[in-house]
Amino acid sequence: MYFVSIVFGLILVISSLFMIRREFNRAVNTQAQMIEQSRVYKDADLFQLLENLQLSIDEMNTAFYDIAQDLEGKYSLHEKEIVDLNKALIQLQDRLSEKQAPMVNAVEENIKVMTQIKEQKKDMETTKEIREEKTDRRSEIIRLRSSGIPIAQIAKDLDMGVGEVQLLLRLKQ
């Protein structure tokens, strides 16, 4: 929105500069004509021409200052619009951040839950590995016992307690 206003302002400035240039050229041409005609006129007529020329220059100056004042007013108006747009943008950003806060909390909560689930899964895998290891140990104990090796020797070979070996042998039954 403010881009359009700035472009419009620039168009006004450029058109004003062309109008000023045209008026200046017209004044220069008029001055040249007056000088050309001054050769024909008397001294009194020359003073009249100089006064007319001075009036033309004063009118151009007044027109220029009017245009400059008008442009300054438009610039101030556009500057105020830009400030208002920036305030509205900040308000929209605040509203958006307020709406995003619950979503951020929900995402953080989901991350916590997912982390807990991963930890539980790791624990379950560890428990499963321990069970498989104990099953392997139990089958090893049973195999060694069935080959006639005494319980004390099995416990020593497998780095286990005698009571633990006896317990695993009982679980077989």
Please provide a written account of the structure.
There is one protein chain. By secondary structure, this protein is mainly α. The protein contains four helices and no strands. Helix 1 runs antiparallel to helix 2 (43-146) and helix 3 (151-157) crosses helix 4 (162-172). The longest helix has 104 residues, at 43-146. The protein is rod-shaped, with a radius of gyration of 50 Å. The mean pLDDT is 78.
Q: What is the fold's blueprint, element by element?
A:
Blueprint: H1 2-38, H2 43-146, H3 151-157, H4 162-172
Helix pairs in contact: 1-2, 3-4
- The low-confidence runs, each spanning 5 or more residues with pLDDT under 50, are none
Q: Describe the sheet with the most strands.
A: none
Structural class by SSE content: mainly alpha
Percentage of residues in strands:
under 5%
Oligomer: single chain
Count of helical segments?
A: 4
Q: Strand-and-helix sequence, N→C?
A: HHHH
Can you give the mean pLDDT? Answer: 78
Distance between the termini: 87 Å
Overall spatial form: rod-shaped
Can you give the helix content as a percent range? over 70%
- Overall strand count: 0
* Gyration radius, in Å: 50 Å
What does this entry show, briefly?
This protein is mostly helical and 173 residues long. It contains four helices and no strands.
